[in-house]
Task: structure prediction
Amino acid sequence: MSPAPRSFRIAPSILSADFARLGEEVRAVEAAGADMIHFDVMDNHYVPNLTVGPMVCEAVRPHVSIPIDVHLMVRPVDRIVGDFARAGADIITFHPEASEHVDRTLSLIREAGCKAGLVFNPATPLNWLDHVMDKLDMILLMSVNPGFGGQAFIPGTLPKARQVRARIDAHLAAGGQPISLEIDGGVKVDNIAAIAAAGADTFVAGSAVFGAPDADGGYRGVIQRLRAALAG
Result:
C-alpha cells in the first residue's frame, strides 16, 4: 500500500522578522496563511550567534493561534526544555550532539506536553535516529549551517531528505506514529518543489517570507507562491 498523500506546512522563521515589531510580524504571517511559527533559539555556544529565549516565546504566544515550532540551537538542552514548554511552545526540536542523553531529552520534551524532534546539521549522520524513532514527532534537516539567516540552500540536503523519508515510511509501515520531515535553510519559491519531492512536508522560510516586497504581495503573496510551487 502506498503512503497517504502528504499535506504541506509553511513555517516562517522569526529570525528574519523585524524584532522591533515582533507581535505584529507574527500576526501578519499567520493572517497571510502560515501554518506554524518557527522560533530559532541560539546561545552563542552551540552556534556562533545569540537570539531569543523563553521570555520572547511567551510574549509571542498570545499573538498567534498556530503552533510555535521551537528549534533549540543550545547546549545543554535539558535545563531549558521546561521553560519553553511553559512559554507556549508546541514543538521543541534539538541537535542530538548538544544533548548528553538524546532519549532522555526527547522524553523530557514529551513529558512537558510538547511534540519532540531531532535536528541534523548538513554533516551530521542520521544514525542518531536508529533507536529513538518511537519518540519522535519531527525530524528537521538543516539545509544550511546553523547560526545565521539568509544562507544559500545546500543541495546535499536532498539525498539526505530522501533517506529520512524512507526511514519514516518504513517506521509507519511497521505501525509507528507519524513523523514530520522539516527542512530549514534557503527554502524559496524556486526550490521548494524539489525539496518536497525529496520527502519534506514542513518548510521553514525566513528571509523568503519576511523579506518579501510589498510590491509582490508581501507575506501573503510569497506564501501563496510557495503553495503554488508545491501544488505543481
About this structure: The helical segments are 22-31, 54-60, 78-87, 102-111, 157-173, 192-197, 207-210, 218-231. The radius of gyration is 16 Å.
